[in-house]
Amino acid sequence: DRFVWDKVGGRLLESKVGSKAQEVRLAADGGVEVRRVGAERQAVRSLSDEQLRQLAALVAAVEGELRLLQARPVTTLHPLDEAMITPPGEPRRLYYDFNVASEATTTSPFTCL
Question: What Gene3D superfamilies does the annotation carry (predicted)?
């Protein structure tokens, strides 16, 4: 969905319901699962007016102080080897490609998005 909020006037200027044929949900095993969304839910906005007001207030409170990023599973990478997957309930293991770091050819953050 797409929302345009007037931060000065504190009101919703525009709302467009997006396509929601599928949803990605957290699976019991710690991964993600893709589910079909029923026709009745596809036409419903993802956030209510009250939720938008609360979100706008939170964003205004940290504006200029904090960068907000959308956090969601990365679904565009190649599958991980089983040895690199952290089992559910265990502390997350992080991996870093030191070949990239050793080249020192960039000053940008490393990201797969």
Answer: ATP-grasp fold, B domain (3.30.470.20)
What are the CA-CA distances from residue 70 to residues 73, 74, 80 (Å)? 10, 11, 22
Which CATH number belongs to the domain containing residue 44 in this structure? 3.30.470
In-domain check, residue 108: no
C-beta separation of 88 from 30 below 8 A: yes
pTM of the predicted protein model: 0.52
110 within domain boundaries: no
Residue 112 falls inside a structural domain: no
Q: How far apart are CA 44 and CA 3, in angstroms?
A: 13
Largest CA distance in the chain: 52
User: How many distinct structural domains can be found in the chain?
Assistant: 1
Which pLDDT tens digit goes with each residue over 8-43?
A: 999 999 999 988 899 988 988 888 899 999 999 999
Choose between 86 and 78: higher pLDDT: 86
